[in-house]
Amino acid sequence: xxxYILTTQQYDQVQGQFINPYQFINCVQDINDVxxxxxxxxxxxxxxxxxxxxxxxxxQGEYIPKPSPQFxx
Amino acid sequence: xxxxxIMRGFGDKLFGNKLVAGQLPTNxxxxxxxxxxxxxxxxxxxxxxxxxxxxxxxxxxxxxxxxVKDLKSYGIxxxxxxxxxxxxxxxxxxxxxxxxxxxxxxxxxGWTFASTGVTPNGINAVMNTGYVxxxxxxxxxxxxxxxxxxxxxxxxxxxxVPFAYTHLLLGLGxxxxxxxxxxxxxxxxxxxxxxxxxxxxxxxxxxxxxxxxNYNGLVVGLNSSFNNTLPTSSVVIGGDGGLYSxxxxxxxxxxxxxxxxxxxxxxxxVQAFQTTLSRNV
Lengths: 73, 281
What we know:
The complex is a heterodimer of chains A (about 70) and B (about 280). Chain A is about 20% helix and about 25% strand. Chain A is built from 2 helices and 6 strands; from the N terminus they run E-H-E-E-E-E-H-E. Chain A has helices spanning about 10-15, 40-45, and strands at about 1-5, 20, 25, 30, 35, 60. In chain A, the strands form 2 sheets. Chain A has a 4-stranded antiparallel sheet. In chain A, a hairpin with a 2-residue loop joins strand 2 (about 20) and strand 3 (about 25). In chain B, helix 3 (about 60-75) runs antiparallel to helix 5 (about 260-275). Chain B has 5 helices and 17 strands. Chain B folds into 2 domains: about 5-60, no CATH class; about 65-275, Jelly Rolls. Chain B is globular. Chain B has helices spanning about 5-15, 40-50, 60-75, 90-95, 260-275; strands at about 80-85, 105-110, 110-115, 115-120, 125-130, 140-145, 155, 165-170, 175-185, 185-190, 195-205, 210-215, 220-225, 235, 240, 245, 250-255. Classes of the chains: A alpha+beta (about 70), B alpha+beta (about 280). The interface of A and B includes residues 20, 24, 28, 38 and 73 of A. Strand 3 (about 25) of chain A pairs parallel with strand 2 of chain B.
């Protein structure tokens, strides 16, 4: 899975921010604790004209998820 | 000669493929003060969708209206805290709560919105309902349209503290699912071949076997366990706690704990709704 790679500073800037009253930004850390942003074509349309459109210009990289949390928890 | 202008409005608003651009939300489904037999709560939902920037097709309006009427007929409507019919093929529409203008959802990035429902990406996508469980006698429901076994939360919450979870995870191992309701005990059910369909976890009492998991209207598991502390975080859809689902959702709901008869009737109403939309599984 390919995603957009964020620095920690960029993550702090965008995580939890709303792009409209019903959509917000949620990033995720990979197995190496690197922050990733995932956005599909519908997201790209929704982000258009927002101050966070630059997320789609970030460098891309392979996302490897962390192992699933121990379950049952 | 009668004035047929009013009929143009009728056709545009009720049977048109989409709502008319620029249409005032308060006019949705109405000619003057008439509402064509639409339920008042359905019309209020349509208006909220439009006010939020969404659109609904004619068949989506008809199906949703019938869903409201059926739920009222079965005596379930008043027990519902939030219900998301996932119609309108957009975040603006799918985030709206059909029951009322409270607990409207918020979507993260990573969702796909379609006429068949909403699909999380299985990585980070989550919808927050904002609803925090206030009673042990509680239930949650989800209409799953995708048969995958990815370990991910479909609806509920996974707060590790106070170890009182209410959730449905439809992917647990290759052919089993897990339900919890105000407890860290489990109802695990082996579905053998597919997990698509309408799942519920309902607690109707805190006495013996007062907690059920229902699948397509039938009881498939029961238990008695519950904790004395309620979950503290809000109900989310699509993932939580690092466990993200990739299954498409045709409807989700939070409600009081439903009796077996109510759970069966809820399934009947929801399945009719999905069938009208040609997305039943």
